[in-house]
Amino acid sequence: VTLLEQNPRWRLVPRGQAVNLRCILKNSQYPWMSWYQQDLQKQLQWLFTLRSPGDKEVKSLPGADYLATRVTDTELRLQVANMSQGRTLYCTCSADIGRADTGQLYFGEGSKLTVL
Amino acid sequence: GDSVTQKQGQVTLSEDDFLFINCTYSTTTYPTLLWYVQYLGQGPQLLLKVTTANNKGISRGFEATYDKGTTSFHLQKASVQESDSAVYFCALVDITGNTGKLIFGLGTTLQVQP
Hints:
heterodimer, A: 116 residues, mainly beta, 6-stranded mixed beta sheet, 5-stranded antiparallel beta sheet, 11 strands, 0% helix, 59% strand, globular, B: 114 residues, 4-stranded antiparallel beta sheet, 12 strands
């Protein structure tokens, strides 16, 4: 049984359009949820960690803009916008299943985004 | 800032070979160090972690020693199997206030041939 469910698993994104990703936590006892991005070279980069419903954060990185929202205790969302043409990236959510700051993260299987 | 370096982008071995993946880190503190493994089509999963300098982490035949003298955390396995083929990431816990934030190395792709 997977702890984190991500959808969609794959999306073709028309140039200039934003895409909304969801991450559902199956066990609400793990409050610290995060988003990571991973490029085709497999490099993993932390984006956000959101703890409480209502928390929001934005970030701009080369190649994409991000807006993360903690919707409920069990749902984390990510809006990805302004992706560079021809780019493919993966967005993966995680939950901290250890005590805080132990680094014991459970990752979802990721959402693959490809810009047309 | 803190960083993790993995020099090997790809390692190709045969079954029963010895595995060594290089990892060094740079921080101003003594962080928790970890190895994550990512199999094809899956998210990364924790392989092992060590919180204390000079300690060794062991899991599933893999081991890594936290060497603060050389700031290294190399991953080793005595005898690899084809099922070990995956991408291996060295990481450290960022303690600047963002729970859930890890700093990853670039990853080492291990391919084990039967």
